[in-house]
Amino acid sequence: MAALPAAPIDAGPADVGALVGALIHVHFLRVLEFGARLGVAPTARDRPVQMFLALPLLLPALAEVLGAPLPSDPRAGFDGQVQRRWIEYVDHLGELIPRTVVENLLATLVPRVVKATSA
Predict the structure, then answer these.
(1) Global pTM?
(2) Which of 71, 86, 99, 104 is a plausible cystine mate for 76, CB 3.0–4.6 Å?
C-alpha cells in the first residue's frame, strides 16, 4: 500500500519543543545505559535516521529553551564520567552526521521551537 501524504499537524512550538527535547533525552539514556559508542555505521544514508541522530547537535541552539540533559555545573548530579561520555557521544555524532543534515535542522526545526519563547 502506498503511503499517503500526511495532513499537516497543528502543533505549536511548545509541542514541537517537548518532542525534540524528549528525543534528545533518548540519546542521553543511551549514553547512560550503553556508553558512548554509537552502533550506526558512518555510511548510513537513511535521512530520517540521520535527522534523529543529529538532534543532540542542535543543543547549542536549543538548550536555552529546552534545557540540557546534564546540568552546567558538574557537581549538580551526574559524575564526571557521565559528562565525559556525553561529550564523546555528541562529538562522535558530529563526525558521523553530514553537516547538511544539521544545517537543515537548524534552519527548519530550531526556529519552530525557539520562537515559542521569544514571541
Answers:
(1) 0.78
(2) 71
Q: What is the DSSP string of 11-31?
A: --HHHHHHHHHHHHHHHHHHH
Q: Write the burial class of residue 96 (CB in 10 Å: 0-12 exposed, 13-18 middle, 19+ buried).
A: middle
Phi, psi of 72 (to 5 degrees): -65, -25
H/E stretch holding 82 reads: helix 80-96
pLDDT at 3 over 80: no
Contacts of 37-44 with C-beta under 8 Å, sequence gap 24+, read: 37/92, 38/89, 38/92, 38/93, 38/96, 40/96, 42/95, 42/96, 44/96
